[in-house]
Write a sequence for this structure.
């Protein structure tokens, strides 16, 4: 258990969170290295013996130290921007293990990817096919490409993070895929290396994932009969974690299901998990500034806000809130909404939680390692939090807290 109480104080591995707050201040993201490594190992052990690549989805948590950790574990990377590619390279990631997804790759990003020598560009439209083909021809290289195919299965997750249905902006339509592959095969500047899909995030049941795998396999076989052989099949990420009372199927069930579908196939299996590797590894540490009791509601106003962790405001996401000190003198027990200082009613981190608090109490917003810091903003000119990586008894600062000066350093007064 990476986050557990010891002597009445919540710890990340063996480091008490109150010590982290003292050393690095609040709000602050705290990650456990052991949890990240343990989660990666679960994927690796199920896939051992199968030609495979675990391409960590950088968008979930792109801190360089996290990426470097993944690179050392042998991970590849699923990226969606030139910025993420630059991060992967800066962290020592191997470009030949990088897959580049996303519907809107710019000309510059395509060139950057081709220069870096990545494993594959996942194309999402015919327009993009044309642009990549022309760019590769101009540079005198062959662009390794796959298509992200929309398998039109319902992932049964939150509509904002479901991506495999017909009316999503992602991928090419299943019905068009064979025609588009045949067309792409005629482009001398393209090398068709794979096929992929990603049906959504925070999946809890295995069935839609397996359905998608079966549909992608059927297409792969059709393409093979048409003389288009591929070297990998990318089934995406999306493996859910437990935030509240969800019971996501274990990773092994998703992967073993996919492995059964692909039994006997020679293609490398690529998966791109994000949340399931870093989500539960992280907590957002925050301090209560004020208690504001009321008739209808009791508010605990904390120093973290929606700009630091937007998931509750954006998706109504539920994150467990734990007191860093199990018990404190003068703490007032009650049911609290945990809100930040930002001027929006949507600025809440949690609602109606039973806690015993006083001004100065520390809280940990749990399972915030994925889509936390990466989605933060500077709204209300709030510097973004520090990030700390814990390993055993040690805690390292992996991103300094932003300063207000940095926030407007790029702005210019006009004469
Ligand atoms: N592969 C592709 C092509 C993706 O689009 C995504 C996530 C992933 C992999 C990784 O999915 P994961 O394993 O992390 O579920 N901000 C939202 C989640 C957006 C996910 C976008 N795509 C949230 O906070 O829940």
């Amino acid at each position: 258990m990476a986050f557990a109480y010891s002597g009445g104080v919540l710890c990340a591995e063996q480091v008490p969170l109150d010590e982290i707050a003292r050393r690095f201040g609040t709000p602050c993201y705290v990650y456990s290295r052991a949890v990240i490594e343990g989660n990666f190992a679960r994927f690796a052990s199920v896939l051992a013996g199968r030609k495979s690549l675990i391409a960590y989805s950088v968008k979930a948590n792109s801190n360089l130290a996290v990426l470097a950790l993944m690179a050392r574990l042998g991970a590849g990377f699923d990226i969606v921007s030139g910025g993420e590619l630059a991060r992967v390279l800066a962290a020592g990631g191997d470009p030949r293990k990088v897959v580049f997804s996303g519907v809107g790759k710019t000309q510059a990003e395509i060139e950057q990817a081709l220069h870096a020598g990545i494993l594959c560009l996942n194309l999402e439209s015919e327009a993009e096919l044309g642009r990549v083909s022309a760019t590769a021809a101009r540079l005198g290289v062959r662009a390794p490409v796959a298509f992200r195919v929309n398998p039109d299965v319902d992932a049964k997750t939150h509509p904002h993070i479901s991506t495999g249905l017909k009316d999503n902006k992602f991928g090419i339509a299943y019905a068009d895929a064979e025609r588009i592959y045949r067309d792409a095969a005629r482009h001398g500047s393209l090398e068709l290396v794979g096929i992929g899909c990603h049906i959504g995030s925070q999946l809890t049941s295995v069935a839609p994932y397996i359905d998608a795998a079966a549909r992608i396999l059927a297409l792969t076989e059709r393409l093979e009969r048409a003389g288009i052989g591929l070297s990998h099949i990318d089934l995406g990420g999306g493996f859910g974690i437990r935030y509240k009372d969800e019971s996501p199927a274990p990773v092994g069930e998703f992967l073993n299901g996919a492995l059964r579908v692909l039994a006997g196939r020679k293609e490398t299996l690529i998966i791109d998990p994000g949340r399931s590797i870093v989500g539960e590894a992280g907590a957002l540490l925050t301090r209560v500034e004020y208690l504001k009791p009321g008739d209808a509601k009791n508010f605990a106003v904390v120093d973290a806000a929606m700009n630091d962790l937007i998931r509750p405001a954006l998706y109504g996401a539920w994150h467990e809130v734990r007191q860093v000190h199990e018990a404190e003198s003068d703490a007032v027990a009650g049911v609290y909404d945990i809100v930040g200082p930002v001027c929006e009613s949507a600025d809440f981190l949690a609602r109606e939680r039973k806690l015993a608090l006083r001004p100065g109490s520390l809280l940990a917003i749990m399972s915030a390692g994925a889509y936390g810091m990466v989605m933060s903003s500077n709204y209300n000119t709030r510097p973004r939090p520090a990030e700390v990586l814990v390993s055993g008894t040690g805690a390292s600062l992996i991103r300094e807290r932003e300063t207000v000066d940095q926030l407007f350093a790029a702005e210019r007064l006009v004469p």
In short: The CA atoms of residues 109 and 115 lie 10 Å apart. The chain has two domains: 3-31+279-407, 33-275. Residues 207-225 form the longest helix (19 residues).
